[in-house]
Amino acid sequence: MNQETAPPHSRRSFLKQLGSLALMLAAPSLLAKAPAKKAAKWDIHYEALISLSIAEQEGFRTHRPYVAVWVEDANGKTIRTLSLWVQTERRGPKWIPDLRRWFRGEEDRRTADGGDMVTTISSATRQAGKYSLVWNGKNDKGALVDQGDYNICIEAVREHGTYQLIREKVSFGKKVFKQNFQGNQEIDGASVEFRKKA
Fold first, then answer.
1. Which of 30, 71, 161, 183 has its Cα between 20 and 30 A from that of 169?
2. For the residues of 116-157, what is the DSSP string, one character each?
3. At the topology level of CATH, where does 46-196 sit?
4. Are strands 78-85 and 122-123 parallel, antiparallel or unpaired?
5. pLDDT tens, 104-158?
6. Between vectors from CA 194 to CA 189 and to CA 197, what angle results, nearest 5°?
7. Among residues 66, 60, 61, which one has the least CA distance to residue 160?
8. DSSP-assigned beta bridge partners for residue 53
């Protein structure tokens, strides 16, 4: 009975098999080192219009609220303060830390980058009424942010009044939209409109 014998491996086929094995072993590490796809930057032809309405309050001891409007990234880090309406004279600065979320973010930013947003961007408090702000897609350092998910934040606090925070997730890309936010006792309505610049 004849027993079949496997043909002897040639040096070429052995090297070929060895090369295939090395490639299979190296593939996972090559995939792990593949660069992540870079997110597209904010399109300079677009802007976000943020509108808010400060509620009318009754009573003779009512004060104008302190209001902060800013943008956070998806991880909750402040990337751009758009407006800060506070009083900076007499007893005014005492109440600025009551804008709790904005103030914590500002302390972190100041520790990392220096400077003081209160002295550079703050302006006077506002009476009841409707106001609008425009965000051009840049961070506090003036660089364009990536397209993607962000939080629009509107915080309001009033002496002898209440503390309120509107914080809504919004996705910015290249599709125009308008999104309304639920109001509260201090800010009775707000919205963001992502639009092409005129």
1. 161
2. -HHHHHEE----SEEEEEEE-SB-TTSPBPBSEEEEEEEEEE
3. Immunoglobulin-like (2.60.40)
4. parallel
5. 999 988 888 877 888 888 999 999 999 999 999 999 999 999 999 999 999 999 9
6. 125
7. 61
8. 130, 189
